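Entry:
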Amino acid sequence: MHWINRYIDQPLLDGAARFLRAWHIRTGLSPERLEPLWNIAVTGLLIFAASRFLAGPALLLCYGGLVMLALPSAWTLFTGRDADGYDVAAYKRLRTKAFMKREAEWAVRLAILFTAACLPFVTRSSDPSAACFMIGASLWFVLTGPARSYLAAAEPPMPRDGDRSFKADLQFG
């Protein structure tokens, strides 16, 4: 168990934390915005791929399914809390939530990772439309499932809001 945590889970958490930090430095947006935007980008890519490979009723069914997968992320982006105001309080709230997820949900993260690795190999169907749908569904899960779980448990970046007391207390050096 220690080996799995040390060589699989922890490097992925560190990579997610580095990605969140780079996202925040590059865009200035809250880390809470990254996961919904990633989900919408993956869904848009799958809509483009579906339009290239499917036609007729199968394409309409695929569009409907992909739009339903994108709706919760769009809802989060447009009606969520003020996620653009990333300050000390938001950082502390995210840091606490990430710590609890790191400690309590490590087995869930590894199960999602294992499922994402195995899912594309077990989605076979004799119907071409169903096969395309299952490949698209597994691609969506592979690209969003592990990202969602590891971004939620990663250490959030410190805000760059100009608060002198925050920088003095939490930045060393």
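The first helix runs from residue 2 to 27.
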